[in-house]
C-alpha cells in the first residue's frame, strides 16, 4: 500500500521537505487545464519524483452527457504525467452550462446507473486509464431513490467494473449526520472494488460535520479507516487531503504516519 498527499501549490515546499515520507502524489488536473501551460511547466519543475495519481472534480460522471472537451484536455495531461489511476466523484458538477465547482449528489436509481455506464465507457475510450469513483459527503437526501448509497456503489461496480475510491472521512461524516452505522455500509461494498482511500479532517458547524479538509483526521474517524483496510484486499493508495488552514499542514503529514502505523500494526 502506498501513502501520499494531495498536491497543493500552497504547500509545495512542505511537501518537498517531506518527500521521503511520501510514496505517491495526488494531483488535481482541473487546476492545470485549458491554456495553463505555464502552470503545467511549473508543476513539472517542482513535483517530486514520485508515483502520480489524478483526482478530478469536473468530470461530472453523473451528468446526462459527459463533456468531450474536458476529456480531451484531461487526456493531454494524462499524456504528460502518466498517472497510475484517475478518480472523480459519484456525483455531478455540471448541469447544462452551470458548474457547481463541487460534487453534488445524484439519485441512486437504475436510470442514473445507465448514465454512469455510458459515461464510463466514453471515459475509457478516450483516456484508456483505470477510473475510480468516490463516495461524497452530503447533508441532503435525493428524491426518486431505488437504492441506498452503498447499494448503488455495489451495483455500479457490478455493472461497470469501475473501482471505488473510498473516502473514509466522507463515510464517517455521512454516518454521523444521517445517523447510520458505517460498519453496515462498508459490509455492502464488494471486497475487490476499493483501490484507494481518502482521509481528511473536517469541522462541525451547528451540530453538523463538514468535509472541509481543514485539520487532522478526527479520532473516531480512524476506526472507519481501520475497518476499511481490514475489509478491502485491493487497496493500493491512501491519500490525505488538505485544502484549508495550511499553517497546520504538519497535521496532515502526521496523519500519513498514523495511517501507515495502523496498517503495520494490523499485519
Ligand atoms: Fe475525498
Provide a short characterization of the protein structure.
This protein is α/β, with parallel strands linked by helices. The chain has helices at 12-17, 37-46, 68-81, 110-127, 149-160, 168-177, 182-187, 221-231, 250-266, and strands at residues 2-6, 24-27, 51-55, 86-89, 92-95, 98-104, 131-134, 163-167, 194-199, 201-205, 208-215, 237-240. The longest helix has 18 residues, at 110-127.
Topology:
Elements: E1 2-6, H1 12-17, E2 24-27, H2 37-46, E3 51-55, H3 68-81, E4 86-89, E5 92-95, E6 98-104, H4 110-127, E7 131-134, H5 149-160, E8 163-167, H6 168-177, H7 182-187, E9 194-199, E10 201-205, E11 208-215, H8 221-231, E12 237-240, H9 250-266
Parallel strand pairs: 1-2, 1-12, 2-3, 3-4, 4-7, 7-8, 8-9, 9-12
Antiparallel strand pairs: 5-6, 10-11
Helix pairs in contact: 4-5, 6-8, 8-9
The protein binds fe (ii) ion (FE2).
